[in-house]
Amino acid sequence: MRYQIEWLPSAEANLQRIWLYWQQEGAALSNVLDAISDLRSRELRGIAESCNAIERTLQRQPLKVGREYRHQRTCRVLENGPLVVGYDVYEDERRVTILAVSYDDRRN
User: Fold this and answer.
1) Rounded-to-integer distance, Cα 37 and Cα 29, Å
2) 82 neighbors 46 (Cβ within 8 angstroms)
3) Residue 59 and residue 29: Cα distance in Å, rounded?
4) Torsions phi, psi for 5 (to 5 deg)
5) CATH code, domain with 29
6) 90 pairs with which residues across the strands?
7) What is the pLDDT of residues 12-58, one digit of tens each?
């Protein structure tokens, strides 16, 4: 049985900011060099592929992937491509809540 994936509004908003940054930044710079336009396309494709892979993976086996992370509370962290997500797993409800997402260009 699959897990249902839900995004906290703040995590979803941050994913939108990441996406818009690469759309706008790349568009502004693409006038300078065609190479920048290629970079923008690769980054946007990488973000979309990473997001889709994260959701597919978390739907199937959220406790077998990622690692436990403890700061102010305990959650799990999964890295895929340029995206890093923090999430909670509710086994009884077969639900995963994505708490936060960040972009790490070193991972791309």
Assistant:
1) 7
2) yes
3) 37
4) -105, 130
5) 3.30.2310.20
6) 95
7) 999 999 888 877 765 555 555 555 566 667 788 888 999 999 999 99
